[in-house]
Each structure stands twice: as C-alpha cells, then as structure tokens.
C-alpha cells in the first residue's frame, strides 16, 4: 500500500504544487505515495457555503466552524491514519516524528486559515497539532507541504540510495557536516586536504568532528540534549 496524504483545505488548487516535482513528484508519478486535496467548503453552510464565523467572546478575524470542519474530516477519514492540524501552537515537527509518520500509512492533514479552528473540533476529532516553526503563515498549506515532503523522501525507494539520508542534519542529533565537490580550488578556497586523502577512517572522524562543532556553535539546544543537558 502506498503512503497516503489527504489534505483538508480551503484552497485545494494549491496542491500538489512543489510536491509535484523533483523527488516527491517522481515518487507521486510512480504511485509510491498518493495525494488527495479535499475542499472544506464542500461542507460549508447555506447558499454561500460558509465555513467560518466570528470568534466567541469577540476579537478580530474569523474562526473555522467546528461543525463544518468535523463534517469534512468525517467524509475524508475512513482509516486509522493520524489526523494532523498544522498550527503554530502545535508540537514542533522533528525528524523523529517525520520518521514515525513515514513508517505508517500516511496522514490526514487539516490546513487552518483565518484565526484558527474551533477548539471543540480539535478535541472531538483527536487532531494532533503540529508546527514547522515559531512563526505564523497565512494558512496551513505550505506547512503541510513541508511535512509531506519530509515524509515522502524517506519512503523506500524514493531517494537514490537508502544511505543518503542517514547522515543528514537531525538524524543522529547533530547538524550535518560540510560538503565539497569539484573544482578543487574555488576563489582561493581549497577543499580540505583530509577529504582528498583517501583515508576513509580519518575522513569519517573529520566529518564527525565538523558535525559536532557546527551543532555546538549553531544549535546549542541540540547539543545540550545530545549531551544529556537541559533543553
């Protein structure tokens, strides 16, 4: 069974978008995964298919109605895939969570808009809130694309070599070491001598040292977790 992504959105025309090219697009064409974008507005109310209403208690903006979104979820979700809501207040998306999702059968992903969605539908339909970073987007669609791309590239046979992802950033708690290729000299900068030595053990040790150095300098939070310190 291929990995299945079902998107609930007010803008289904945004998909597949970037997911239709490169690794994800090639895998989609080979049916290694499938994508269905469904519009929440099909379950909207009245002649204008309204999906939102004013916030209870007052305040700016609009909120997606619980009854409308619940109907959209119920119409789309007929299996046990995780139900995700892309939200800036969600748990940060990590490589470990991506790996867990990629190992399953896929996900049903809700893309919020406006001020958010009614809290009651999050509770009633067991939505897992997921964030891709500490910032706010206009909607959840771009965040959903990032999550899907991260998962799809880990599916068997999608990357050219299964080992190509083993030493990437976050896979072992470290950021990735520097990469070099030809030409050997670029604007006065040489490829490090160790990488031209042909000594595989020394190269591996150098790469490890560089990954640790970069992690310490750029992501002390990751380094602290790796060393067993406080987050």
Walkthrough of the structure:
The protein is α/β, with parallel strands linked by helices. It folds into 2 domains: 3-152, 3-Layer(aba) Sandwich (Alpha/beta knot), CATH 3.40.1280; 167-226, Orthogonal Bundle (Trp Operon Repressor, Chain A). Helix content is 31%, strand content 18%. It has 7 helices and 9 strands. The protein has helices spanning 22-29, 66-76, 95-102, 119-124, 141-152, 200-218, 220-226, and strands at 3-9, 33-39, 52-53, 63-64, 83-92, 106-111, 128-131, 185-186, 189-190. The strands form 3 sheets. Strands 2-1-6-5-7 form a 5-stranded parallel beta sheet, with helices on both faces. It has a two-stranded antiparallel ribbon with strand order 3-4. A hairpin with a 2-residue loop joins strand 8 (185-186) and strand 9 (189-190). The longest helix has 19 residues, at 200-218. The radius of gyration is 22 Å and the shape is elongated. The model has no long low-confidence stretch (mean pLDDT 94). It catalyses: guanosine(37) in tRNA + S-adenosyl-L-methionine = N(1)-methylguanosine(37) in tRNA + S-adenosyl-L-homocysteine + H(+). Specifically methylates guanosine-37 in various tRNAs. Keywords: Cytoplasm, Methyltransferase, S-adenosyl-L-methionine, Transferase, tRNA processing. One of its GO terms (molecular function) is tRNA (guanine(37)-N1)-methyltransferase activity. Its EC number is 2.1.1.228.
Task: Name some characteristics of this structure.
231 residues; five-stranded parallel beta sheet; two-stranded antiparallel sheet; alpha/beta; Trp Operon Repressor, Chain A
């Amino acid at each position: 069974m291929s990995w299945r992504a079902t998107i609930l959105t007010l803008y289904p025309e945004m998909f597949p978008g970037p997911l239709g090219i490169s690794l994800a697009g090639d895998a989609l064409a080979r049916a290694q995964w499938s994508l269905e974008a469904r519009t929440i507005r099909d379950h909207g109310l009245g002649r204008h298919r309204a999906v939102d209403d004013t916030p209870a208690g007052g305040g700016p903006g609009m909120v997606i109605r619980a009854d409308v979104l619940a109907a959209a979820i119920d119409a789309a979700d007929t299996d046990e895939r995780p139900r995700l809501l892309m939200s800036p207040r969600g748990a940060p998306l990590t490589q470990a969570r991506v790996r867990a999702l990629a190992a399953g059968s896929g996900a049903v992903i809700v893309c919020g808009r406006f001020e958010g969605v009614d809290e009651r539908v999050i509770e009633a339909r067991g939505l897992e809130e997921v964030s891709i970073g500490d910032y706010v987007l206009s909607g959840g669609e771009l965040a959903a694309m990032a999550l899907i791309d991260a998962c799809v590239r880990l599916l068997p046979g999608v990357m050219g070599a299964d080992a190509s992802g083993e030493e990437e950033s976050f896979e072992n708690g470290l950021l990735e070491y520097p990469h070099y290729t030809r030409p050997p000299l670029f604007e006065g900068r040489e490829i490090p001598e160790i990488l031209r030595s042909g000594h595989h053990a020394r190269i591996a040790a150098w790469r490890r040292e560089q990954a640790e150095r970069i992690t310490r300098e750029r992501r002390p939070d990751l380094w602290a977790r790796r060393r067993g310190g406080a987050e």
